[in-house]
Design a protein that fits this description.
Bound molecules: FE(4)-NI(1)-S(5) cluster, iron/sulfur cluster
CATH topology of the largest domain: Rossmann fold
Length: 678
């Protein structure tokens, strides 16, 4: 390995030992990664960053420089305020569209399952099915699951196309939130309607009033949070079963050298759930064995990983920034992708490694990938076909290029809104009472949702870990989803023992009493809606605020990168839960809009955005917020001193990491792959 080829900035690319080991290989062999491509961008456009460029019509593109040299308005006369607000609404419309389209597909699959003639899809969450039917006044009587599910699917699919009235789930929100939304004209009507209206409002020459556009941002995002995403979560629980806490493993060390490795990457559980079943098919296992493999190992990346982790305990190979690093292990026989968060660059790796990237969504083809169209009607056959591609490809591995870092961690995942209540209250009297009591007494200071992506602008996982540890130290219980949950899982924070390494005395007491980790993994990014419903349960339980904006809770997305994250942040804020994000929203080109989002929204929804790249400062913005809410409610201060000393130990990830990077083989040169100039 040529020492001189190492790039000095590598140490700051990630704090994950498995990623660092793979980055070293990338560095030594010249394989290009997302970090290199970020460097190649050099300084990114400051107009874009600040949201003051507009490409919404072709008198432009226009860029404005308020208060500085150059144009103060676009050709049409749009000001920085208008341009920034319009840009934000477009991002939120795109993020909402992505989550909601995912929700729509799952509802279509529910209809298929309701008919009862699919091998792949059945009603696996009958309790949830009946709960929802009751909520929406769908007759239960002595009807079969299929009959109820059919009517529920019809009802929910209309939520997407509904033109008039309000989204049904608006009724789930506390009364005060509904009042805020009505006053701001931000109550969502139909899911698709809000996305389309948002796109129309931001077309050239339509809405130019920044305040009005920001309220449309809230309405569109609420159509995601209480609409498309919430429906996706509910129906996934009905179709694939309600998650329950289970143990699993995370990080690249879950890949198996002697087995066929299929890596699922993307978002929709309709495909990944069937792949889980197909990978256990005895016929396929025999075929794999005949090729010399000792089994079929499935692992996930990003949120599709979270979906099958939560329900089947399938191991997670990594989060967003590990999608390329996983391919560099040389043992991925198929990387199966559907929609969202997939780098087109993954297919470049086919030039250097034997991996076949298989795309499956009729909505997402990737140049260079093998496309196998996935239709729910033939789900099992398609899943088997894809697994056979992996079996056939196993023999093409180059043993010289195999590098699996010996890094993996135990996690416990599967904490849904109902599970939290079951665990805290006990099976016979499920309740949020013990949680509320803990908060009222000050044993727990509050609850934080820490979610979202990785972004190569931040050392991978560092902000998630720093932020979460600081919250724990201050007795703030953490609930997580998405790539943030994977980050904390890799660092050992999703185990009950982590409470005694990282948390204050109050959290330790609770974790000891009920045996939960101090950081609760509640699913994929669409499952952020579980945080909304859990907070609503806390309101309904009483004693810590009679609306969401009064609860001692806060949210954060320290390493966010996607438009979906903006939609999520906006629906949390519009629901009364303040959100701190690492990188600013692209709004700082307008002081007015920035101020509106970070301050004035408080008057409309009781919550605001904050932008803070330093994770420790971000944690303290959240803690201050929580303390303020506690004071407003007349609750006492924290029960225990911070830091709580006796068990404080170092924060390094625990087991399995000793051999990270040791014994990894040189990949050799990869002539076909994109090369980095040293
Ligand atoms: Ni969320 Fe999940 Fe990850 Fe970010 Fe992408 S996978 S849907 S968008 S990167 S957390
Ligand atoms: Fe320029 Fe206005 Fe057209 Fe935007 S809509 S590109 S600001 S002229």
């Amino acid at each position: 390995m040529a020492e001189e080829k190492k790039r000095p900035e590598e140490k700051v690319r990630s704090v994950d030992p498995a990623s660092l080991a793979m980055l070293e290989i990338a560095s030594n062999t010249g394989v290009e990664t997302v970090w290199d491509r970020l460097d190649a961008q050099k300084a990114q456009c400051k107009f874009g960053k600040q949201g003051i460029c507009c490409r919404h019509c072709f008198m432009g593109p226009c860029r404005v420089n308020p208060g500085g040299k150059g144009a103060q308005t676009g050709v049409c006369g749009a000001t920085a305020e208008t341009i920034v607000a319009r840009g934000l609404l477009r991002h939120i419309a795109a993020g909402t569209a992505a989550h909601s389209d995912h929700g729509r597909e799952i509802v279509r699959t529910l209809r298929l399952a309701a008919k009862g003639d699919s091998d792949a899809y059945k009603i696996r969450g009958p309790r949830k099915l009946r709960k929802l039917a009751k909520e929406y006044d769908i007759e239960i009587g002595d009807r079969s699951d299929g009959e109820i599910a059919g009517e529920l699917a019809d009802f929910l699919s209309k939520q997407f196309g509904q033109q008039d009235g309000l989204l049904a789930n608006v009724d789930r929100a506390p009364e005060q939130q509904q009042k805020f939304w009505a006053a701001a004209e931000a109550t969502p009507r139909g899911v698709d309607r809000e996305v389309v209206t948002g796109m129309h409002m931001t077309h050239m020459g339509v809405d130019a009033d920044a305040d009005h556009i920001i309220m449309a941002c809230a309405r569109t995002a609420l159509a995601d949070g209480w609409g498309g995403s919430m429906i996706a979560t509910d129906v996934s629980d009905i179709l694939f079963g309600e998650p329950n806490p289970l143990r699993a493993r995370v990080n690249l060390g879950v890949l198996e050298e002697e087995q066929i490795n299929i890596l699922v990457h993307g978002h929709e559980p309709t495909l990944s759930d069937v792949i889980v079943a197909a990978s256990r098919d005895p016929e396929l296992l025999a075929e794999a064995e005949a090729k010399g493999a000792k089994g079929i190992n499935l692992a996930g990346i990003c949120c599709t990983a979270n979906e099958i982790l939560m329900r089947h305990g399938v191991p997670v190979a990594g989060n967003f920034l590990q999608q390329e690093l996983a391919l560099m292990t040389g043992v991925i026989d198929v990387m199966l992708v559907d929609v969202q968060c997939v780098f087109p660059a993954t297919t470049e790796y086919q030039k250097c490694f034997h991996t076949k990237v298989v795309s499956t969504s009729p909505k997402a083809k990737v140049p260079g990938a093998t496309h196998i169209d996935f239709h729910e009607e033939e789900a099992m056959e398609t899943a088997k076909k894809i697994i056979r591609v992996a079996i056939d490809n196993f023999g093409n591995r180059d043993p010289e290029k195999v590098n699996i870092p010996d890094v993996k961690e135990d996690v416990i995942a599967g904490f849904t809104t109902d599970v939290i209540s079951d665990i805290l209250g006990g099976k016979y009297r499920p309740s949020y009472r013990p949680l509320n009591d803990g908060i009222q007494a000050g044993r727990l200071r509050g609850v934080a949702g820490v979610v979202g992506c990785n972004n190569p602008k931040f050392p991978q996982d560092e902000s998630h870990l720093e932020l979460v540890k600081e919250l724990l130290r201050n007795d703030v219980l953490v609930v997580q989803t998405g790539c943030s949950a994977i980050a904390c899982g890799k660092a050992g924070l999703l185990t009950p023992e982590a409470a005694f390494q990282h948390a204050g005395k109050g959290i330790q007491d609770i974790c000891k009493a009920v045996g939960i980790p101090p950081v609760l993994h509640s699913g994929s990014c669409v499952d952020n809606t579980r945080i909304l419903t859990a907070c609503t349960e806390m309101v309904n339980e009483g004693g810590i605020g009679d609306s969401l904006d009064k609860l001692p809770v806060a949210g954060a997305a320290p390493e966010w990168m996607s438009e979906k994250a903006i939609a999520i942040g906006m629906y949390f804020v519009a629901s009364g839960i303040s959100v701190v994000i690492g990188q600013s929203l692209p709004v700082e080109g307008s002081e007015y809009v920035t101020d509106f989002l970070t301050d004035k929204l408080e008057d409309h929804f009781g919550a605001t955005w904050s932008f803070e790249p330093d994770p420790i400062k971000a944690a303290h913005i959240m803690i201050d917020r929580i303390d303020q809410k506690r004071a407003d409610l007349g609750l006492p201060g924290p029960m225990y001193d911070v830091p709580y000393e006796p068990n404080a130990v170092d924060t390094a990830p625990t087991a399995h990491v000793a051999a990270a990077g040791e014994g990894l083989a040189a990949v050799g040169s990869c002539p076909g792959a994109t090369r980095i100039e040293d």
